Amino acid sequence: MVHRGGDIDSENIYIEGDNLDALKLLRETYLGKVKMIYIDPPYNTGNDFIYEDDFSQRADEYADNSGQTDEDGNRMVQNSESNGRFHTDWLNMIYPRLCVAKDFLSDDGLIFVSIDEHEAHNLRKICDEIFGVENFLSQIVWEKRYTRSNNAKRFTTLTEPIICYAKKSSYINNIKEKRNEKANSIYSNPDNDPRGPWTSVSYVNPATKSQRPNLVYKIRNPLTGMYIEHPTNAWKYEQETYKKHVKENRLYWGKNGENSYPRLKKFLSEMKGGMVPVDLWRQEDTGTTDQASKELELLLGRKIFDFPKPKELIIRIISLIINKENNKDSIILDFFSGSATTAHAIMQLNADGGGNRKYILIQLPELTDKRSEAYKSGYQTISDIGEERIRRAGKKIKEETGADIDYGFRCFKVDSTNMKEVYYRPVDVGQMTLDQFTDNIKEDRTPEDLLFQVMLDLGVLLSSKIEEQEIAGKRVFSVADGYLLACFDAEVTEDVVTQIAKQHPFYAVFRDNSMADDSVAANFEQIFATYSPETVRKVL
Questions:
Q1: What is the C-alpha separation between 323 and 319, in angstroms, rounded?
Q2: How many CB atoms neighbour CB 518 within 10 A?
Q3: Across-strand partners of 219?
Q4: Strands 227-228 and 251-252
């Protein structure tokens, strides 16, 4: 993986490349550290394209890149509807990615997958296998549009499934979502209760008296003085609890005591834990694909991406699980990033409600069609669209809210190793070629490339804080407040090594050929043994 630039101070990560390769590279470092995964994978439409939109990389091009062609250039797989492996091919694509992604989730983490009806049932089966049937939480129905299409041949599809699984459902006691104005509108205060607005629920139990005899007793209407008892059903609460409700003035009998049975007051001020989510998400609460397209068009100036998900949908998903103060620093992963709606949603949520949620986005740099509006606007890949969307969305949110949050991102590209073959496969290097390997590192790799490779190798988060120091004229990277110190400059002296050792890092990393002379190389271990023997030393 190589560093492509971006904001080095940002804790957000954007990666260009095949998401399976990227996930494998990140797995050990981010094992169990991700609170939520949301993906919107390509739907199995029967088109010979990786993605549904018109400017995607063609499937034959991707097949060449990913080894799905034989030595004569013939495609090994044709995913047309007449293909007997039509569903299998799509599932073979998504299955290994979900297997690797599971390892990223924390024990109380959740994964949400947007899908259409063609593969929803098959996706459920492989998710049952990967995550376990017992960890299935819901198949949410999202109202993605609200007008019928007269171009549809059969039925207009107004909804879309979103499948949700937990890493370990036993770690999730309950799931709540934030209250909204619609939910709060049912609360009022007709009797001017000093505790504020309230709503009421029935005091009558669905169970009969014979079923719950311990909940059968007479209760008094304080406004009429009459004692009443339900003719057929029990009450919901035991008598001692009823007495407590009376003492706390929680029973409502109507304005003039005209109700036959009391109702129990539930106060808005007590509803701080949120409310239980439902599995039907209306468009007025979560937006539509049309609204998302218009927002993206306004943001980028032209219509260059089809069928993006609305940021309101992603905000609602994230808010479902990030509903506690200690979860506001969570990491969110999206490895089918598309137009980067997830990044937009996280920035908006951080700005509006506080917090420092971080994202990891992965997107294949699919080429845009030269005839498309995207290409004409200067976007050669979908990755270009996603990155620009993040920049513009961040600028807009900052102008509107003034919030002091992380608007940047560090950008990486999945690439071949930074090291020459001799580093990993010395047995394959012939005697006559050894002069080519006076340096283990490829010539076109930057110090930042080496730093991020080392971070991945050592299990240090790519989002960790990075600072630069100057020691005796040499550039030294300090990662995670000195946890890792790395110097890749040439002509490193004993003074540089000594000053690094005196800072007592957990890891210290240098280049193999960076020592100023043989004396420095010979004394390297002795310097650390003297000043910081516990430091783990690594030489590239």
A1: 6
A2: 8
A3: 228
A4: unpaired
The residue among 54 and 173 whose pLDDT is bigger is: 173
The predicted model gives 96-120 an average pLDDT of 94
Name the pTM for this structure.
Answer: 0.81
* Helix residue ranges per DSSP H, 420-490: 421-424, 447-458
Rounded CA separation 214/51 (Å): 61
pLDDT tens sequence across 398-438: 999 999 999 999 999 998 776 565 444 555 545 544 444 45
Q: What six digits make up the tokens of 372? A: 């498309």
- Phi/psi of residue 188, nearest 5 degrees: -145, 180
pLDDT tens-place string over residues 76-89: 444 445 444 667 88
Phi, psi for residue 294 in degrees, rounded to 5: -65, -40
Query: For residue range 351-377, what is the model confidence (pLDDT) as tens digits?
Result: 998 889 999 999 999 898 899 999 999
pLDDT band at 152 (very low <50, low <70, confident <90, very high): confident
Token output for 355: 């917090």
pLDDT in tens, 510-520: 987 788 888 88
3-state helix, strand, coil in the chain (%, to 5): 35, 20, 45
The SS3 of residue 264 is: strand
Nearest residue to 116 (alpha-carbon basis) of 164, 160, 154: 160
Indicate the DSSP class of residue 372: S
Handedness of CA 481, 485, 491, 496 (dihedral sign): positive
DSSP secondary structure, 151-169, as one string: T-SS----EEEEEEEES-G
Q: Nearest to residue 30, comparing CAs of 507, 390, 358, 467? A: 358
How many other CB atoms are found less than 10 A from the CB of residue 164? 23
| Distinct helix (H) and strand (E) counts, the chain | 16, 22
